Amino acid sequence: MTTPCIQLHQVSKFFQSDPVFQNLDLSLEKGEIMSIVGPSGSGKTTLLRCLAGLEPFTEGRLLINEKDLTGTETNKRPISLVFQQPLLFPHMTILENVAYGLAFQNIKKKERHPKARELIQQVGLKGYERSYPHEMSGGQQQRISLARSLAIQPKLLLLDEPFSSLDVQLRIEMRTWVRDLLKEKQITALFITHDREEAMYMGDRVGIFHGGFQQIGEPDEVYQFPSTPFVAEFFGDHMVIDEHHYVPVQSLIVTTQDPNTSQYCWEGIVKNSIFYHGNRFYQMSLPSLERNVTVASALELKTGDNVYVTAYPERVNSFTNLKSKE
Amino acid sequence: MMKTLRHKQIQFWVYISILFLFPVLFLLYKSFTLPMRYETHLHAHFTMQGWVTLFSENQLIQATFVSLGIGAIVVILNLIVGLTAGYALAFYDFKGKSLLEALILFPIIIPLLAITIGVHIAMIRLGIADTWVGVVLIHLVPTIPYAVKILRNGYTSLGTAILEQAYVLGPDPWQRFLSIDLPLLKPAIRSTIFLTFVISLSQYVITAIIGGGNVVTLALVFFPFLNSANSTVLAAFSIWFALLPFLFYILIELLFLLLPYQKPWRTRS
Amino acid sequence: MKSSGTTKIWLLLLPVFLFLLLPAYGLFSALWSSLIHQGSLSLQTYQELFQKETFWSSLFYSLRITFIATGVSLVIGLLLTRTFYPVINRLPGKLSVWLPMLFPHFVWGYIVLLLFEQSGLFSYMFHHLGIIESRESFPILTNDQNGIGMILTYIGKEVPFVVLMLLPVYVQKNHQYKDLVRTLGGGRWAAFKDAEWPWVSPILLESGVILFAFILSAYEVPYLLGATFPEMISILTYDWFYAGDWSERPLAFAAMISTSILIGIVSWGLYAITNRKRWLLTKGKR
């Protein structure tokens, strides 16, 4: 087996004495895209900034192709970062923006512009070479920003919620398009988002981040088999029953009569109803679990109705990290 | 709304004309006409005499070069101090930051005359009194506080994000400064250069004390002229004081063109 | 905001620290020189200074001129900016405000001479309009005992300074605050007091302190437009500094140190007043 392209060994970051994350391990294969998803303030942006070298890791090592880059300056790292905002240089044309990084890479002046042109074509903006950033739309600017970061042929591309400043429609278009481009160019990338759908779509693997990785795995696996209650609630559509058990929401059954099953049945109160993809969903609170849950049901229920929510015992699962310990 | 704006514009130009434009235009007019005789009738005699006399004075030509030279060095030193301190103050938090900010303002609050007579003896001992070095140094005192202030604000409104974005793409700090900081800070740098040069040009008493009459700048030529020359020559001389920053400015703009990513023919809207 | 890279910060701040040595040394050296009397430390020079009638009359005269010139410049500057900032912020407006900044103070002083002296433009025009009979009947407005010429010069030069200081505040200010106050039923005064003054006052104060300090101790304009008596404090200092046998030099140092202390007290006082006012305002809101 080949050694992974990107390796993080036991990295930690502290601000003063407060840990942002501690003792992380992570490795990426060449050409792999990994999504990191977590709520805001979970420290995922700090991780990215540390990887880019904009902040130092407090402890631990970063290796790329087995070369230690922990102490390397930002500008010397073969890592490129696409920020939330496009941050194009306003005084340069699109062509100059994309070619910017090439100037610092021993690439002959003559070869820089053809290279940049090629990338501009690849991001679908041929013909805009001589335009200025302010003449472009938000989505176009973000594509240019991506092309600029790709131009330096980074060993690792970091994307920090690059679509968050775009509207919903455009986000969905962009994610498909960006993933295809990265795959085509075999770019190793870390993609940060707080949107789990985006994370699942973009990543070959996803990492759920909350002061450290809660779970890393393929999207389906993480979605279906969360390893901690946090992952179950944040990432999957699961209802956490207790510290050890959860049940997928879609397997919950709502009845108005007491079904008289002893184990996994809770009384609930209907709070409101919504339609989603043509189905009726009810949001209800389960006082005994101190939780709210949104369940699909064909029943006609009114706000304030008392109901029973039941789970088949065979659908109740244990968190994966507990299984492995057992 | 449009009407009130139009109205305001007219009002503004009336006030500005009275306060600023009229005096300057009158000065310009004076430089091209013979002095008025109180008793004679109202009519202007056009003359180039003022300007011809002015530029036939060797002393003036020399003083112009001395002023330009001293001004240029003062400007460069101001930019060095202003850009470094401005960057640190805009982007870093450190102990004693607010104290330092107050200290930087203090040279324009303490009387310049007090500082000048205070350093005079020391400059004599160091051998830089009566030389352009001493004059340059004393001209830094009333200028640097403004330079730091303007450039700090420039960096603050630029923000860290775009600088970090540039840094990730591979330039070393000096390359980044030339390709990103300098072009984007151009408005702030321009104001600094202009203001610094004008302040340096305006210093009479501190130049006289430290320069000891050996360093003859334009201000040092102007004062004796007040007693000897007629109002036409003096008016021309006065205009010359305002033209010089313009000449300097054009020079700087030409230098700016040597920087990367400058396209004067394509302006950004 | 970053908080790392201590060495880098000090390296960046090194030039400004080196620079600060110069005015700091100047001030301490002046202080030292004023405290040395016949080779030993004493307040003798200050005793001598404070007994001098010329010093006191010069100081009060300087203060009066300074307060008037500073106050009028601030008021005109503020009114111009808050009324016209959309116009000033465009290129022609900016250029017209920068125009007087181009001229040294003494050149602006010379313009005031050309306009206001007894043989100046206004006198000439009034004469030809038949309003006055001779130049002697035109009031003495330059090199006069009331310092009107100086005040006019400073107003012409400092109003643009105040405008340029205040302009960014008005351009960047969120004007919805004002609308908010108005929709809440506040009048024009309330809108000014609550939605404008808190933003403007710190800059106005800073400009005021700079102008006060500058005008009080500047030399060029009084030299050109001042009266022979009373003299501005800077002229008096310069005369003492260069008086024949250097015997009056300590007086020059003491006069400048006294002026510095006075500026310090006034700046601190102004600062304290505005801060207290702001404090009262915030208390009143609760």
Automatic annotation (TrEMBL), chain B:
Q: Provide GO CC annotations from the record.
A: plasma membrane
Q: What would be one Pfam family of this protein?
A: BPD_transp_1
Keyword Cell inner membrane: yes or no? yes
Enumerate the spans annotated as ABC transmembrane type-1 domain. Answer: 64-252
Compartment(s) where it occurs, according to its Swiss-Prot or TrEMBL record: Cell inner membrane; Cell membrane
Which Gene3D superfamilies would you find in this protein's record?
Answer: MetI-like
* UniProt KW keywords: Cell inner membrane, Cell membrane, Membrane, Transmembrane, Transmembrane helix, Transport
The way this protein sits in the membrane is described as: Multi-pass membrane protein
Q: Please give a single GO biological process term from the UniProt record.
A: transmembrane transport
Q: InterPro entries given for it?
A: MetI-like, MetI-like_sf
The transmembrane segments are 12-29, 65-90, 102-123, 129-148, 193-226, 232-259
Keyword Transcription regulation attached:
no
The Swiss-Prot or TrEMBL record describes its family as follows:
Belongs to the binding-protein-dependent transport system permease family.
Protein known as: ABC transporter permease
Q: Which organism is it from?
A: Pontibacillus marinus BH030004 = DSM 16465
